[in-house]
Amino acid sequence: MPLEIKKLPDSEVEISGEIPAEKFNASWDRAVKEISSRTEIPGFRKGMTPEKILMEKIGEGEILEEAAQLTLQEAWPKILEEEKIEALGRPEIVITKLARGNPLGFKIKTAVLPEVKLSDFKKIAGEIAAGAENVPETSEVEVGKVLEYLRKSREKNPAVGGTGGGLPELNDEFAKSLGNFENLDGLKKTLGANIKLEKTIKLREKKRMEMLDRIASASEISLPPVLVEAEKEKMLAELKKNLAGLGLEWTHYLGHIKKTEEELGAEWKNEAEQRVRRGLVLREIARVEKIEVSEEELGREAGGELDQKGNRDYAYGMARNEKVFKLLENGK
Q: Cβ–Cβ contacts within 10 Å for residue 96, how many?
């Protein structure tokens, strides 16, 4: 099936072509059955209306349109596979030729994953990694703040060992009540180590985002609007989930900040674009460096929860991105 593929602005393509008459005609009987199954005609049960009666009642045009949809639904995945097109979102389909016994003409416009022309990402990452910052040591004040929080939690929550009758003393017994600690000094050392680990992780994430942003800024990336909109929807869903976890209703939150969902989306445009750029950079580096994730690695990342495609895709993306970050951090 010969096709004409045109590149459009905003990372879209237009695909034009014709499906041979024999393939289009093969969808006619299926179209008749589909329409009959959902059409009520007096004297006939749904799905049992003869083709002649159906054509008299609804006309040949509706059956042709149904047959065209069925034909293109079957042809679209094959077109994408054969032409190696990575489509995004729902395509816009226009029928350009529709007649029984003739080829089916069509024109399809769809967003596609954009071409990313990477900058010298290893050089940029190396420069940032070379300027590594030392993780600040944990101070006694920081440990003390955590201890005070733990004391208050114990005092307020009898369910976890608190009495509700006043703050417990900071001593060895208090430390032992919180877990497998020999004494108060042991608890303080563990808290200090945890605080330092948290600082280390935050510093690492900060550097990783700096690497991605610098690489993205120096690369050529066309952002498809559909990807930016999808990212804004994701950000919206994340916020709603977090608010629900705090017991806050979405409508009350909007009323409190005096904004609509549309206004929030407009405010998030720059952040959404930056997130999309980062994702595209990670994906392109993985492609260029041939970074893949084995089944064993995927299983470890997902924790055994690979039953749904969404879980699998998410786990694969997380594991692949971690490999990309390590490559950037190590310079190889």
A: 11
Q: Whole-angstrom Cα distance, residue 251 to residue 289?
A: 46
Residue 163 predicted with pLDDT over 60: no
Per-residue pLDDT at 173: 93
The tokens describing 100, both together, are 């029984």
- Tokens 């509700």 belong to 164
| CATH class label, 3-112 | alpha beta
Cβ burial of 189 (10 Å; 0-12, 13-18, 19+) is middle
Tell me if 129 sits within 8 A of 107, measured CB to CB: no
Q: What is the pLDDT of residues 260-295, one digit of tens each?
A: 999 999 999 999 999 999 999 999 999 999 999 988
Strands 104-112 and 12-19: antiparallel
Give the C-alpha separation, 34 to 37, whole Å. Answer: 5
pTM as predicted: 0.77
Instruction: For residue 90, give the 3-state DSSP assignment.
Output: strand
In this structure, the dihedral spanned by the alpha carbons of residues 191, 196, 199 and 204, taken in order and rounded to 10 degrees, is -140
The full set of domain ranges for the chain reads 3-112, 115-124+132-222
Alpha helices (H) along the chain:
21-25, 28-38, 51-58, 60-83, 121-130, 140-156, 172-177, 184-218, 225-245, 250-257, 261-267, 269-288, 295-302, 309-330
Q: Is 22 helix (H, G, I), strand (E, B) or coil?
A: helix
* Alpha-carbon gap, residue 270 to 116, rounded angstroms: 19
